[in-house]
Design a protein that fits this description.
Order of helices and strands of chain A: HEHEHEHHEHEHEHEEHHHEEH
CATH architecture of chain A: 3-Layer(aba) Sandwich
Oligomer: heterodimer
Radius of gyration of chain A: 20 Å
Strand order of the largest sheet of chain A: 2-1-3-4-6-5-7-8
CATH superfamily of the largest domain in chain B: Pyruvate-ferredoxin oxidoreductase, PFOR, domain III
CATH class of the largest domain in chain B: Alpha Beta
Number of strands of chain B: 15
Number of helices of chain A: 12
Radius of gyration of chain B: 22 Å
Shape of chain B: globular
Number of domains of chain B: 2
Helix content of chain A: 25-40%
Strand content of chain A: 15-25%
Structural class of chain B: alpha+beta
Number of helices of chain B: 11
CATH class of chain A: Alpha Beta
CATH superfamily of chain A: Thiamin diphosphate (ThDP)-binding fold, Pyr/PP domains
Chain lengths: 340, 390
């Protein structure tokens, strides 16, 4: 039976078997004008390294556009093009379709070329959500959308985005004397949104730059599996989160170890937790208190114990009450089973 | 036309953003007390700021409205009466976000103007970094620990008012100490800060720097390409792939050195640099893999050498290095130039070991922003003590 889906082969990118097997070549090198300790630049470097030379990258507006590629300054070693803030999805789909047309016409060599579009949390979780969603429903085109998430519009000096955490201090939510908490929305759960909403999408993953090998392997899997894929990466931002850049790596680890940022991938519908998240889920590792994570960041400096407790209770809820702990917020009927 | 004065503050982006703003705001509000008019503003090209990348903030003060308007008719002051450098590591030159190449810190300073540096170093040490120039100027030091904080939490260690006191001494015509004290008492409502400003005013002195005195190095510059140098489709060339390079001693070729952008070096962003003990390096790859700036060269013998033209000094390599004391971040004031540490190590291991010992051991803790809640409160008394002793 014909499905009428026109699939094209992808590059077969094997997972790196260890840090010593990671190639030396850089496709995103020095010369970007990001902050000291910028983890968003770090994921660009890892992503480009993982994807290799036969890749084109499209970038929607955000730090990774402005700080990387204004005028003649560029760290990119693979072709890169800017796309509008909300259009990483359409740009990726369009580029993949254009490649197909060019190859069909014989205008270029018929070979699998990785198409990656990145977006920040503002470009992805807020403005570009519709376009990314539409792209995720096109099974014919091989592409990856990578959302680097620094939990704010960091380029324009830290405004609230859909992924800003509860209570955070930003340019739009300065704590006041009367009202301490000016942002009371909970972070958008992007990867599960992509996963649950787009049943034909073959790969959705979350990564962290503090686990670089897994992050690169996640990118390689997403590019190899075929069809539209989505990766959400949490990037500690020394500027907007207000911490000493030396802590960039540690905060990425803490986000995982406190259970705030679960690491997992869903490959053809099969969920696999990895790293510390897997250990948290099977009880081998006790989640660290979120206090450890929050108190290292100036953006939470206005929190009083009550706020930290509330934050902790929401994380506990995520792990104790959700049907798929840490990931899908459907409730188990746990209160009925264990009356207090 | 009346009198027009301009003061510029060169500071570390984000880390000293609030501090710089407080100073320029202070100048303008204090000058109001004398019936002068003024405006304070950040350099447009530096916005949005990035952590550590040198930025500028200005205060323009005029004797009347018309003069102020005339002064504001330019994009930014081309010539200033006083330049304040809030971090002494900036004395080696500032390469701003706005992509101008490396500028000497006194680039905009008028002949005979005053350069004020917040530092614990003495003038001869600072002049090793400050580039030489043809016009004479004055150099004055406000002795103090460099004040770093972040976007949201401000470290109120009196650096703002101490700089104001120094400006009043360097150029009383722009604003007097009495006006500054009035501003502090009325607007900041902190008599202790007024005392700090007063003490700095009393102590501040400046020395004359003669033409040609200072760092002889040519600051890094490049020809700004024009739009018509771009390729078809308004595109520009990407970075070519790097490759192996030769060991300076054995001439053995190996390792990997990435090609780096030759128009933005980023090293003037650095306040600390990684110093590597190559003898204890286990070749674990972590510093190289986790560097957001791809600043590590893989050496022909499989070690990792921080390329100091690309390194911006975040310290992640030190944080991820599993070997104790293999990578140590050391304050940038201890160094001249950006030469490869690995090459020095290869050429003379014994000398490198000595150098390492001399460089790493005195390396004190350098606060680079918010690490934990309550940290600034703990740090402020020690900082104020140093300030008081002068």
């Amino acid at each position: 039976m014909s499905t009428f889906v026109e699939e094209k082969p992808t590059q077969k990118l094997e997972s790196f078997k260890g840090v010593k097997k990671v190639p030396h070549e850089e496709y995103y090198t020095s010369g970007h004008r990001t902050c000291q300790g910028c983890e968003s630049a770090q994921i660009m470097k890892l992503m480009a390294k993982a994807a290799g030379p036969r890749t084109i990258v499209l970038g929607s507006t955000g730090c990774m556009y402005v700080a990387n590629t204004s005028y003649y300054a560029t760290p990119w070693g693979v072709p890169w093009m800017h796309t509008q803030l909300g259009s990483s999805g359409s740009a990726a789909l369009g580029a993949a379709a254009a490649f197909r047309a060019q190859m069909r016409k014989g205008a270029m060599k018929d070979e699998p070329i990785n198409v990656i579009a990145f977006c920040g949390d503002g470009g992805g979780a807020d403005m570009g959500l519709g376009a990314i969603s539409a792209t995720m429903t096109h099974p014919d085109y091989n592409l990856l959308i990578l959302m680097y998430d620094n939990e704010s519009y960091a380029n324009t000096d830290i405004q609230i985005s859909g992924t800003s955490p509860y209570g955070v201090n930003t340019s739009f939510s300065t704590p006041g004397k009367v009202k301490r908490i000016m942002h009371h929305r909970w972070k958008k759960n992007m990867a599960p949104l992509m996963l649950v909403g787009h049943p034909t999408c073959k790969y959705v993953g979350t990564i962290s730059t503090s686990y670089p090998l897994q992050a690169m392997n996640s990118v390689r899997k997403a590019l190899s599996i075929g069809g539209p894929t989505f990766i959400h990466c949490l990037n500690p931002c020394p500027k907007g989160w207000d911490f000493d850049p030396v802590l960039s790596f540690e905060l990425g680890e803490l986000a995982v170890n406190t259970g705030i940022w679960p690491l997992y991938e869903v490959e053809n519908g099969v969920l696999k937790l990895y790293g510390k998240t897997e250990k948290i889920a099977n009880g081998q590792f006790k989640r660290l208190p979120v206090r450890d994570y929050l108190l290292k960041q100036g953006r939470f400096a206005h929190f009083i114990d009550e706020d930290i407790e509330y934050f902790q209770s929401k994380i506990d809820e995520m792990w104790n009450k959700w049907l798929v702990p840490g990931i899908i917020p459907l409730r188990r009927e746990i209160e009925a089973d264990e009356p207090r | 036309m009346g009198q027009l004065f301009a003061v510029e503050i060169i500071y570390r982006g984000v880390f000293q953003k609030t501090l710089a703003k407080n100073i320029t705001r202070g100048i303008v509000l204090a000058a109001h007390n004398e019936g002068k008019l003024g405006i304070s503003f950040g350099r447009y090209g530096d916005s949005p700021e990035r952590n550590g990348i040198p930025a500028k903030s200005f205060a323009i003060v005029a004797s009347d409205a018309q003069t102020l308007e005339a002064g504001m008719a330019q994009y930014e002051p081309k010539q200033v009466d006083v330049t304040v450098v809030l971090d002494d590591t900036l004395c080696k030159g500032a390469e701003s976000w706005a992509w101008y190449g490396l500028h000497p810190v006194h680039q905009a300073l008028k002949p005979g103007g005053t350069l004020i540096v917040d530092s614990l170093q003495d003038a001869p040490t600072l002049l090793k970094g400050i580039h030489r120039r043809q016009e004479p100027y004055k150099l004055g030091i406000v002795k103090g620990v460099t004040s770093f904080s972040g976007m949201w939490v401000y470290k109120d260690d009196h650096t703002d008012v101490r700089i104001l006191g120094a400006i009043a001494k360097a150029l009383p015509a722009v604003v007097s100490l009495a006006s500054i004290e009035k501003f502090i008492n009325e607007k900041l409502k902190n008599p202790l800060k007024a005392t700090s400003a007063h003490t700095t005013f009393e102590r501040f002195t400046s020395m004359n720097v003669k033409p040609g005195e200072g760092n002889a190095e040519e600051p890094f510059s490049f020809q700004l390409p024009k739009w018509n140098n771009m390729r078809k489709g308004v595109s520009v060339n990407g970075q070519p792939q790097g490759g192996p390079y030769a060991d300076p001693v054995t001439k053995e070729v190996g390792g990997f050195r990435p090609v780096r952008n030759d128009k933005f070096k980023k090293y003037s962003t650095r306040t600390m640099r990684p110093v590597v003990n190559f003898e204890t390096c286990t070749k674990c790859t972590l510093c190289w893999l986790n560097c957001p700036d791809a600043s590590f060269d893989v050496t022909p013998d499989g070690k990792y050498d921080a390329n100091l033209e690309a390194c911006c000094g975040c310290g992640i390599c030190e944080a991820v290095c599993p070997v104790p004391n293999c990578i140590t971040m050391v304050a940038e004031t201890a160094f001249d130039g950006n030469a490869s540490q690995w090459e020095a190590f290869r050429k003379d291991k014994a000398a490198y070991k000595e150098w390492l010992k001399a460089t790493v051991q005195p390396a004190g803790e350098r606060s680079h922003g918010f690490r934990y809640r309550g940290q600034y409160k703990e740090q402020i008394p020690a900082v104020l003590e140093i300030a008081e002793k002068g």
